[in-house]
Amino acid sequence: MIDIEALRDNSNSQFKTVQFMKAEEKEKVFKNWKRFLASLKENNPEKSWGLFPMRLYEHLHMHCGYIAHYNHKQFFSTYFEDPADTREFIKEFEGYGWGCGDYEDIHNAMLNELNSVKASIIAVTNTQELKDDLGRIKRLMMKHSLSTEDLNDN
């Protein structure tokens, strides 16, 4: 039986209550989303992990088209520990079927928030990926006793 009172719009919220998610829960998820995105701009995975609560993970895999992982730490590791994976997450998030159903309000708010910080996150991940790649190159050159002059010979 559906509780009609629980489905009434909360006039103090930008989100509406639906059968499986109250407006207050949508507010909490959105607040978590904003904090999490802000942490991604800082390129600090430990801080980002601390700002990736179970509530946000559950929303992403239950209502945003992501596959559930063994646990929310594995989901975080899959999408946010490697810069290229973070960019892929953004691409997937943007491509999800937005604008329909019971979660249209929160999905559109999340997408708008992502769009407002996306350029910063992309820039940070590109810079981090370059640093990571340069570190790998240096380690490989040391491993093989190579210098930059040796690269010109090949």
Overview of this protein structure:
The protein has 154 residues and is mostly helical. The chain has one domain. The protein is built from eight helices and no strands. The protein has helices at residues 4-7, 23-40, 45-50, 54-63, 72-80, 83-95, 104-143, 148-152. The protein is elongated and about 65 Å long. It starts with a helix and ends with a helix.
- Outline the low-pLDDT stretches: none
Instruction: Count helical runs.
Output: 8
The secondary-structure class comes to: mainly alpha
What is the helix/strand order? HHHHHHHH
Largest sheet: none
What's the count of strands? 0
Helicity, as a percent range: 55-70%
Taking the alpha carbons of the first and last residues, their distance comes to 73 Å
What's a quick, concise take on this entry?
By secondary structure, the protein is mostly helical. 68% of the residues lie in helices and 0% in strands.
Task: Give the SSE map.
Elements: H1 4-7, H2 23-40, H3 45-50, H4 54-63, H5 72-80, H6 83-95, H7 104-143, H8 148-152
Key features?
154 residues, mainly alpha
